[in-house]
Here is the input.
Amino acid sequence: MARESGAYEGASRRQPVREPAARTYARALPVVPVRARGLTIEGADGRRYLDCVSGGGTLALGHNHPVVLEAIRAVLDSGAPLHVMDLTTPVEDAFVTELLRTLPPELAGHARVRFCPTGTDPVASAVSLVRAATGRSRVITVADEPFHDGLFPRDGEAGQEPPAGLLLEPVRSEAGVFPAADALVRHLRARTAEQAVPLVVDETGTGVGRTGAYWAFEHSGVTPDVLILAKAIGGSLPLAAVVHHEDLGEPGEPGDSDGAGAAGRPASPPAGGPGASGTGAFRGNQLALAAGAATLAHVREHRLSEHAAALGGRMLTRLRALAAEFACLGDVRGRGLMAGIELTAPDGTPGTPGTAARLAAAVRRECLRRGLIVDVTGPGANVVRLLPPLIVTEEQMSAVLDRLADAVRAVDRHRPDGTAAIRAGHGPR
Here is the structure.
């Protein structure tokens, strides 16, 4: 342990010199992980932490899950190539088969899968796809509620054509954990269907059981035309893909040298920006495909989305009770095992800029002192986010919420801005 402690100190000193300043997590969470399993991380200093960041939602099964490790070892031991671009392999075929098994039949029966090299490329690839399919350029991103139908032309309206596509996140996690209302999603599906506009759903952070359904769009009962997938589908390793209805692309499109994609699937559409063509050297990572297939199957077979729905509901209930106790806690939002707790100005009303962000940062620090790793997100950096893995137990969730509540109490006693602590409904203490 002495050697690991020395490594911790040395690594912490070297990183700021060797890497750029945009190390968001490293600055906020000064932990050097050396071992991890499930919900738990052990640092080089010997401390153990409950990890409720889960790689930003990448670790659906937590750290080093046995089924993921077994799948990776099987590829390593087989002597199979670890990287083959997007050539057909048994590993790739198994992943696609399992992925299609999780999708609604009306999409799975007509689906095409395009692998992308990184987590940002599938968005560009999806945008390029719908632009090529419709011959139009405007893509609408749904970023607010209520959605303004004025973005669609009305019947008989001249001078405006329908958009090339409509892009929707079922939960805007990075924006502060804002779930889209199911009624809104159904309305958008109806409007896009009326005007033959492809509906693109970005499941980067919500897929693979996170929200209490295998795919978050299932809550509303709709089926999108295009799915953007990343994070959890790689089973902790980098993997991203776009799944789309076959009507949006045909074989022989530009993007691959032979005019056809892997396993006979269509090639990628014309490039619409960096990464938009779907090409790239790291599309065929066999370890990620194996880890992803194992994760997809385990979540499906063990009905972990149902577990996320039940345990996540209890998590949100307790967080809302905590928010009712402290005036510095505002809205609590989320779905399944994805929750955001908004920090507000000390008196619960809009205050000076940055006050809520300082409170959120203070809660994160106090959580870390208690062995709990949480995230802070939102444009104002004032939303504490919880993303526990889907394998979290009732006992572990209780420990997480106990530590969070204790951290909030500590911040409430010692406000970073020097203002007096105020309990909700009870006035100054």
